[in-house]
Write a structure and sequence with these properties.
With 299 residues, the chain is α/β, with parallel strands linked by helices. The chain is 39% helix and 17% strand. The strands form 4 sheets. The protein has a 7-stranded parallel sheet, with helices on both faces. The longest helix has 21 residues. It is globular.
């Protein structure tokens, strides 16, 4: 029997890698996005085009699927700040409607969330899913709203849903964040006035995709929220150094200290994901960036 998986936000970084990982596991992948300017590189049995705010279209897309990986969102602090009502409509309302559709059809829903909702944590202590949250902006707040609704829906209706917090995700298709490698490959110089000492819990998108496919396949998800990150802190200076080693001649300059424009927080604890999904990251920053470069060169 064919296992069909719906992945929303289908043209985006995470969705493309989820589609690749799911196809390798024998799933028939149905990718959905607002529009398809290009088909993307990931394998898919179907590509649907609709606005995730069209609840009827989203419900139809769930038909015949064993699970939905929900990646569609207004992503990032700046986009959400520019249009907060759109962020609520997409990140909260559309997620709630999709959960209702999945629950009615017996499909599992996996919702992409973000570790940014932990807020600033200057003590850099590890972050546990059961710990406090402190959203700093509209984007963080909408993701926490969606998580809260999904958790309440689990309790009220027994729905098969969980949220997955990640952050500082890099890899082929990255469109948000500065990870140096794409710009260096284009021959550009990159200059940051500050931030070489800024710690980040970098997450290889291949690892994230494998975790989400594992979450589709396990018999149950005992917890409503899971951290899925690299699980350790590395500095942006280390990131730049690795790119320089991979691409000699890379022109990257950085000022010292922390970057005031980025969240400052400790690493995420990933023991829940290890326990319930049987997952741990395969890549560290060195091997993850090397894999990204290989994928770019073989594209």
């Amino acid at each position: 029997m064919t296992k069909r998986l719906l992945v929303t936000g289908g043209g985006g970084l995470v969705a493309q890698h989820v589609a690749e990982a799911a196809a390798a596991r024998g799933f028939a992948v149905r990718l959905a996005d607002l529009a398809w300017q290009s088909p993307g590189w990931a394998p898919a049995e179907e590509r649907l085009a609709f606005d995730i705010r069209d609840h009827d279209a989203a419900a139809r897309a769930v038909e015949g699927c064993v699970a939905v990986v929900h990646c569609a969102a207004i992503v990032g602090p700046e986009r959400a700040r520019r249009d907060p009502l759109a962020a609520v409509a997409v990140n909260v309302d559309a997620t709630a409607a999709l959960l209702d559709a999945a629950h009615r059809r017996g499909a599992r829903l996996l919702v992409m969330s973000t570790a940014t909702l932990y807020g600033h944590r200057e003590d850099l202590q590890p972050l546990d899913e059961a710990g406090p949250t402190s959203p700093l902006g509209i984007y963080d707040a909408t993701k926490l709203m969606a998580e809260t609704y999904c958790t309440a829906h689990r309790r009220a209706y027994g729905s098969d849903v969980a949220s997955f917090r990640t952050g500082f995700v890099y890899g082929r298709g990255t469109a948000i964040g500065e990870y140096f490698l794409p710009r260096v490959l284009r021959g550009e110089a990159v200059a940051e006035p500050a931030g070489a000492d800024h710690p980040c819990d970098f997450t290889c998108v291949v690892d994230l995709a494998e975790a989400l496919v594992a979450a589709v396949e396990v018999p149950s998800l005992p917890e409503p929220v899971y951290n899925v990150t690299g699980g350790r802190l590395r500095t942006r200076g280390e990131l730049a150094g690795i790119v320089r080693n991979l691409l000699p001649g890379a022109r990257i300059t950085q000022g010292p200290g922390h970057d005031p424009g980025r969240h400052l927080r400790g690493p995420c604890r990933i023991e829940r994901a290890a326990r319930d999904l049987g997952w741990r990251p395969r890549f560290n920053l060195e091997t993850g960036l090397a894999d990204w470069l290989r994928r770019e060169r073989s594209a």
